[in-house]
Write a structure and sequence with these properties.
Layout (H helix, E strand, L loop, with lengths): L6 E3 L4 E4 L2 E4 L2 E5 L7 E6 L7 E2 L7 E2 L1 H18 L4 H8 L6 E6 L3 H6 L1 H11 L3 E4 L1 H18 L4
Parallel strand pairs: 5-8, 8-9
Antiparallel strand pairs: 1-4, 2-3, 4-5, 6-7
Organism: Pedobacter psychrodurus
Protein name: DUF4263 domain-containing protein
Length: about 160
């Protein structure tokens, strides 16, 4: 038996900060919330610069990518406050404390050039948030497509 796991887009979670409304691009909910995480997924441009001061002794995360990661960090903090759990359950349609936070932005060429520095800074400052480039997302989809084709049964 083959089990197809389905994610669907649902109503976005809104948060207010500095009198600006922030809405998550995608809140991906699962049909198996006890086993799979609900994902806050932010999509930004391919042109987002990941690193700044690249040619100096100490490169750092760019201001632009920091801003996007900070947005996900705010969502992460929001999910950790017990007073918000009721609203989250209403928006999602089920109660859970199992969340992923993901950012899609930038290009692999830049990320790979400074991979150790990038991973280190991401882990220290934004623990629990994953960042994917567009090429990495394409590779993930290609791998999943190959796996599904291997499982296909001919009738």
């Amino acid at each position: 038996m083959f089990l197809m796991l389905k994610y669907t887009k649902t109503g976005a979670i809104e948060g207010e900060k500095d009198n600006q409304r922030r809405i998550c691009d995608y809140l991906l909910k699962t049909d198996l919330p006890n086993y799979l995480p609900t994902t806050f997924f932010e999509v930004k441009k391919e042109s987002v610069q990941l690193m700044a001061h690249k040619h100096r002794k100490h490169p750092k995360l760019s201001e632009e990518v920091n801003r996007h990661l900070e947005q996900l960090d705010n969502y992460q903090l929001y999910t950790e406050v017990a007073e918000n759990w009721g609203e989250l359950a209403l928006k999602i349609g089920y109660q859970t404390q199992n969340y992923d936070f993901q950012l899609l932005a930038g290009r692999s060429v830049e990320k790979e050039e400074y991979l150790d520095v990038f991973k280190s800074k991401l882990q220290r400052r934004y623990h629990g948030i994953d960042e994917f480039t567009f090429e990495e997302l394409e590779e993930i989809n290609y791998i999943h497509l190959e796996q599904l084709q291997k499982l296909r049964v001919q009738l």
